[in-house]
Amino acid sequence: MATVDTTDTEYDVVTVDLSDGRDYPIYIGAEFDEKQAGEMIRSHIKGNRALLVTNDRIAPFLLEKYEKLLNDGGDIKIDTLVLPDGEENKTLDVLNLILDKSLELGLDRKVTFIALGGGVIGDMVGFASAIYQRGVNFIQIPTTVMAMVDSSVGGKTGVNHPLGKNMIGAFHQPECVFIDTNTLSTLPDRELYSGVAEVIKYGLIRDAPFFEWLEENMDKINSRDPDALRYAIKRSCENKAEVVKEDEKEAGVRATLNLGHTFGHGIENGSGYGAWLHGEAVAIGTAMAATMSAKMGWIDESLVKRTYDLLIKANCPVELPVDSPMNRDIFLKTMSVDKKVANGKLRLILLKGDLGNCVFTGDFDEEAMKETIDEFVAECKGAQ
After folding, report:
1. Is 165 helix (H, G, I), strand (E, B) or coil?
2. 362 φ/ψ angles, rounded to the nearest 5 degrees
3. Which stretches within 109-157 are classed as H helix?
4. Phi-psi bin for 4: left (phi > 0), alpha (psi -120 to 50), beta?
């Protein structure tokens, strides 16, 4: 079984190993001084201009710090932009603010965009960098668990559309990912728990020893134990990097990282963007995927129970509230525009076999899916 890494190294480095010399490092630590952090990040800025983008919730805490440490080298001009916070602002209109600012500043193709924030900022800045002058470099500085363990790694970028989550975007890899776990000290509990839903996912789909470690150490993560957080983030990044190396553009195995996401995206879209944090919706979606898998006889009920128990221990939701607008029709409609639909056929990531195994398939029992949806919406206002 995996144990917490308690080595005295200043920081960990996980490499995302890609083809054509596009490898990049993920730096993970808690004891970076500003000089060291500045040098590490600046070493990945190829030109002499950078645009540092954050949101209005992060800016009061971290913008001045990162602007200073990036400016301290003196050889790179750092401009800044603050966007409105929230999933409801992950839109083309808000993305255009990044492009407007870049054009107003006269930034050329040697500019580096830097995303300072959670998954929304990272996805939008990454997408802006993919399309500005047909592609410029960018750097991820994630500040939430969700972004650290998932969205900042692997090059998925994009924005939401009223008809579907993340339906407009591009694959565009960063130059590096810089993770200072100290930034989690100001992260609201709700966002911490939301991010842990993505951590649990790795154990369920491919890393049984990690799942077992989480079962034993979730209390430490909830209490923000620095060693436990660092290990959980590192192991999650290692899992993500291994999958991205094998399948960068989600032609196959990378889709398994979306366990619970098809149901979860349906909840986010059907409830209105911003009503749920992404990880909260994914947690409910993961519970639904486990329930459906058991209905088809693909996993034992004992694994369903362990899945629910760990999500609950992580303070993640596993059911929809009675005031939810969700019903079967909304689920089926929103899921029909999921990115994993191929040739008009819905494909799901489901658990199959022992802990740590899953399948990405369109060959499933649709009645089991509908029964699962009906069970989860039975008490919802939208289903009455």
Report:
1. strand
2. -100, 0
3. 119-131, 145-146
4. beta
Residue 26's contacts (CB-CB under 8 Å, 6 or more residues apart) are 13, 14, 15, 16, 153, 176, 177, 179, 237, 241
Q: What is the pLDDT of residues 187-237, one digit of tens each?
A: 999 999 999 999 999 999 999 999 999 999 999 999 999 999 999 999 999
Backbone φ and ψ for 13, nearest 5 degrees, come out as: -125, 120
Q: What are phi and psi for residue 77, nearest 5 degrees? A: -85, 125
Q: How far is CA 332 from the centre of its chain?
A: 24
Whether 2 shows a pLDDT value over 50: the answer reads no
Higher-scoring residue by pLDDT: 351, 273: 351
Residue identified by tokens 């366990």 is 259
Determine contact, residues 46/110, Cβ cutoff 8 Å: yes
Please check whether residue 325 is in contact with residue 331, taking contact to mean a CB–CB distance below 8 angstroms: no
Mean pLDDT of 279-283: 97
Q: Are 26 and 13 in contact (CB under 8 A)?
A: yes
256 alpha-carbon distance from chain centroid:
14
Q: Which residues are catalytic?
A: 134, 156, 198, 240, 250, 254, 258, 261, 265, 278
- Record the pTM: 0.92
For the sheet containing 137-142, what is the strand order?
11-16, 24-29, 177-180, 137-142, 112-117, 49-55, 77-83
How does pLDDT run across 40-68, given as a tens digit for each residue?
999 999 999 999 999 999 999 999 999 99
CA distance 314 to 40: 33
Q: How far apart are CA 350 and CA 359, in angstroms?
A: 5
